[in-house]
Amino acid sequence: MTSIVTTILKPPALLLGCKRTLFHWINLQFNVVDEQRIKQFGADRACAEWILRNGGTIKWTNTNEYIKNYNLLPPEGTNSHIQEVDATNSSIMYNGFDHFNGCHYVTKLILHKCHLVDDQALEKLHYLKKSLLFLQVTSCSSVTDKGLLALNSLSNLKQLILDDLSSVKNHDKTVQALKSSIPTCNIQYK
């Protein structure tokens, strides 16, 4: 009986080399960009839905409160713009960062304990280069020096807070390179 059960539960040969978990594939789907949704309701609405769906919070330009409940989004068709994103402990990942394309009012982004955020994700922040003023990247274990160096495209950035980035190996050299490429930005690496 035991041999029948182990034979049935044995993974197919094609999956033996696969190191991705089921949750990785689920997270990929939760981050997919829906181009039809963007065309129908706009980039800001689609981006807000993405952030909330993955456990983050957003603040609109016309409010002082953060929204974390998907059901509290304004009615579809409302002309609202995202001003701030707090993605603390969220499951956002690189393929979802294309949602920022077309969001022209995002001034603040917090990426704290976002373990799925990696270099590819940070490279896509160029979508926010005209509006982003404040960026926090802390306790994101998949971010390396390469990802931080990609932030050099954020020419309007005024404040950059970095901390607890275990995969960054050359802290000082990376920060110096960023200071050279964004001289008007106050960079703190704790």
TrEMBL record:
Quote the InterPro entries the UniProt record gives.
LRR_dom_sf (IPR032675)
> Which domain of life does the UniProt lineage start with?
Eukaryota
Recorded protein name is: Mitochondrial ATP synthase regulatory component factor B
